[in-house]
């Protein structure tokens, strides 16, 4: 396949991943709701795009994740809507800016690892793990920074200090998210990357 056709194929894959993210964002596929918080699987398309299409696609898919998350703060998600009412700018940064950076960094990590002699599975696996991990690593500090002193978050914290709140917030939810997104994202990304090389 010539370079023009390869570019067209990659753009097609990118378009499909963006469409998948939008579908996931507004259906139960993308989020597992547990009380006010959610376990999100939205980093899976980000992982796939970051590994197969590079830095720009990682950032675009991260941005798509962030924008769809922010849109849900307009009455679609109780937690997000409340946070938006408390601090719209902080909510935008937490939802959109951090997710865009997460997608870019996931792709950057893969780009760096792809230049090493590590096995392909390790390269993709570490990159895949970075997406849900960074998503949590960016989200939680933003939540603390922008909303910790609010009555709403304090009512959820129920008297816990910041460290205990973070551990509770991440806890099992974060581990499930990291494991599922890493395994699914890495498996699909590795398979798709190999398939793209053959065409």
CATH class: Mainly Alpha
Give the helix proportion (percent range): over 70%
Order of helices and strands: HEEHHHHHHH
Largest sheet: 2 strands, antiparallel
Q: How many distinct beta strands? A: 2
Q: Identify the quaternary structure here.
A: single chain
Mean pLDDT reading: 90
Report the principal-axis shape. elongated
Distance between the termini: 6 Å
Rg, Cα atoms, Å: 17 Å
Strand order of the largest sheet: 1-2
Number of domains: 1
- Annotated CATH topology: Arp2/3 complex 21 kDa subunit ARPC3
The portion of residues forming beta strands comes to under 5%
Q: What's the total helix number? A: 8
Reported CATH architecture:
Orthogonal Bundle
Describe the structure.
The protein has 8 helices and 2 strands. By secondary structure, it is mainly alpha-helical. The chain has one domain: Orthogonal Bundle (Arp2/3 complex 21 kDa subunit ARPC3), CATH 1.10.1760.20. The model has no long low-confidence stretch (mean pLDDT 90).
Layout: helices, strands, pairs:
Layout: H1 3-25, E1 31-34, E2 37-40, H2 43-53, H3 55-71, H4 78-86, H5 88-113, H6 120-147, H7 151-157, H8 162-198
Antiparallel strand pairs: 1-2
Helix pairs in contact: 1-2, 1-3, 2-3, 2-5, 2-6, 2-8, 3-5, 4-5, 5-6, 6-8
């Amino acid at each position: 396949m010539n370079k023009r056709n390869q570019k067209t194929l990659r753009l097609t894959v990118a378009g499909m991943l963006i469409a998948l993210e939008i579908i996931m964002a507004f259906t139960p596929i993308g989020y597992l709701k547990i009380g006010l918080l959610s376990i999100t699987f939205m980093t899976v398309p980000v992982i796939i795009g970051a590994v197969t299409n590079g830095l720009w696609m990682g950032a675009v898919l991260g941005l798509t994740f962030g924008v769809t998350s922010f849109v849900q703060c307009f009455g679609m998600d109780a937690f997000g809507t409340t946070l938006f009412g408390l601090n719209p700018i902080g909510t935008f940064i937490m939802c959109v800016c951090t997710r865009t950076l997460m997608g870019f960094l996931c792709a950057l990590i893969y780009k760096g690892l792809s230049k090493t002699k590590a096995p392909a599975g390790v390269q993709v696996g570490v990159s895949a793990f970075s997406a849900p991990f960074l998503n949590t690593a960016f989200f939680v500090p933003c939540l603390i920074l922008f909303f910790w002193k609010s009555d709403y978050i304090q009512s959820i914290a129920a008297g816990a200090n910041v460290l205990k709140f973070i551990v509770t917030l991440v806890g099992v939810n974060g581990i499930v998210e990291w494991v599922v997104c890493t395994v699914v994202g890495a498996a699909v990304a590795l398979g798709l990357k190999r398939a793209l090389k053959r065409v």
